[in-house]
Each structure stands twice: as structure tokens, then as C-alpha cells.
């Protein structure tokens, strides 16, 4: 029995699949939707629509950016509360029993079958689509630069000063170019260098697997949610990222030749 009913939305959406640009956009936390079979996981609607359920504003910015830079965009169809598509399968934060200090009753004490149902219905279709897209582009001799679009909550215990965080793991090449370009173009913004989070193997999936694993230039972009909570903010961030990407795309060979940080 599949987790999703036949009339429910797909676990993955691909926008502008044949986009001609060098960038490939990912949105791992695009939607707060839960599969009907999971009910509400024991959470209120307000909780599910909070940052624990999805990345507020991220999908809207990613859609604007996809159109502006002619990049394919792959988005999740369901909430990270059902399964977090930016975590390796099996880690405690994959299907979180507690997230952002909130208990998730519907995720407590799941057996192997219940975990597998979420992985096969939600995680695998999303990552299968990304894998096929990157494989097709590689087979066609195309470059792919992976940009993951996320947003973060402005206050997690303490206020977070960064308007945007540019984050990475072992390979800072593209992140360094983004930080430099953002600071040059928008000197009034506070840009986090691997803040508020760094990319890690257990706390991330797309960057280690598609970026580092395939040797593709990559970066994970985190926008503060109060900047992307409405359409005007989403459009403004899409414009800023478009401008930065165009600067960087003009010198990708130099970025690729950059030193890989350890
Ligand atoms: Zn996210």
C-alpha cells in the first residue's frame, strides 16, 4: 500500500525541466503538505505551517529564480515533518520525533515498515528525479551547478542577524563567489559565511551527494524568513539572487578552478 492516495499531489515537482542555463535549483523544504494517511501527525495547523513544517517563502523565490535564469527547479511535494528530504535516510532528524523543540507524536516509535513507506513514497521520488535530471545533463555534456534554496527562522533562542546565509561543507568555491558577490552588490545586507548552519554529512543530503559526490559546484542558500514572507520580499530576493548568479555565471571557469577548502 502506497503512502499516497492516487488523487494526492506528486512527491516531486519539476519546473522548467529543460532550462538552458548552467544552474539546477533544488527546494527540499518546499511544502507544508502532509500525506492524508498521516493525518496531522498530532500537530496543530499553526505548528505545521511554522518553520518546522517547511521553508517559508523558499519555493516562491526558487520559482522566480528558475524563470529568471532559465534553470530547472526540483521541489518536494510534502512536508519535512513526514520525512526530511535534506537528511540521509535513517538519521534521527530524517523523520523527527522532536523538531525545533516541538514533539511530533505521529513520528514517535515508527517501525521499519512505516519508515520505509515514507522513504519510498516521498524521499525516493524526489531524489530519483534529481538524479535523473543531473544524469541527463551530464550525458548531454551540459554543466550543472547545484543551488539549493532554503529559508531559516529569524529567531531560534536568540535573534539571528544574517539576512542570508551562504553555506557549504568541504567545497567553498561557489559559496565564496556568492559571498563576495552579495557583499559587493548589496553592502547593507548581513551575509552569513556558513551561518546560521554549516553543511554536514548527517545534517544535509543534497550538498554532500550532488555537489561533493558528483564534483559539481554547489551552494546552499538560506534566506531569513522575515525577508521572504510576502510576495514583495520573495520578488526582491529573487532579483538579488538573479543578479549575483549572472555575475558568477560569467566567470564559472575561474570559480571551478578555485581551491577546494578542507
Ligand atoms: Zn530548508
From TrEMBL:
It comes from the Bacteria. It holds the Pfam family FGase. Keywords: Hydrolase. InterPro entries: N-FG_amidohydro, UCP029730. GO terms for molecular function: hydrolase activity. This is N-formylglutamate amidohydrolase. It comes from Zavarzinia aquatilis.
Amino acid at each position: 500500500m502506497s503512502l499516497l492516495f492516487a488523487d494526492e499531489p506528486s512527491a516531486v515537482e519539476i519546473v522548467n525541466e529543460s532550462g538552458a542555463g548552467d544552474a539546477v535549483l533544488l527546494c527540499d523544504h518546499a511544502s507544508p503538505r502532509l500525506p492524508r494517511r498521516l493525518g496531522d501527525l498530532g500537530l496543530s495547523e499553526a505548528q505545521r505551517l511554522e518553520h518546522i513544517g517547511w521553508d517559508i517563502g523558499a519555493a516562491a523565490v526558487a520559482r522566480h529564480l528558475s524563470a529568471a535564469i532559465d534553470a530547472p527547479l526540483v521541489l518536494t511535494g510534502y512536508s519535512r515533518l513526514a520525512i526530511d528530504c535534506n537528511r540521509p535516510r535513517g538519521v534521527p532528524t530524517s523523520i523527527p520525533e522532536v523538531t525545533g523543540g516541538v514533539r511530533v507524536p505521529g513520528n514517535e516509535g515508527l517501525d521499519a515498515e512505516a519508515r520505509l513507506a515514507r522513504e519510498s513514497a516521498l524521499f525516493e521520488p524526489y531524489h530519483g528525479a534529481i538524479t535523473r535530471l543531473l544524469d541527463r545533463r551530464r550525458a548531454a555534456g551540459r554543466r550543472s551547478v547545484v543551488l539549493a534554496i532554503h529559508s531559516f527562522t529569524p529567531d531560534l533562542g536568540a535573534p539571528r542577524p544574517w539576512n542570508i546565509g551562504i553555506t557549504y561543507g568541504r567545497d567553498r568555491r561557489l559559496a565564496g563567489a556568492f559571498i563576495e558577490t552579495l557583499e559587493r552588490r548589496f553592502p547593507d545586507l548581513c551575509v552569513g559565511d556558513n551561518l546560521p548552519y554549516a553543511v554536514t554529512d548527517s545534517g544535509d543530503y543534497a550538498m554532500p551527494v550532488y555537489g561533493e559526490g558528483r564534483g559539481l559546484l554547489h551552494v546552499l542558500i538560506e534566506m531569513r524568513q522575515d525577508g521572504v514572507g510576502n510576495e514583495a520580499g520573495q520578488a526582491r530576493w529573487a532579483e538579488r539572487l538573479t543578479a549575483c548568479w549572472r555575475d558568477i555565471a560569467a566567470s564559472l571557469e575561474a570559480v571551478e578552478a578555485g581551491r577546494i577548502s578542507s
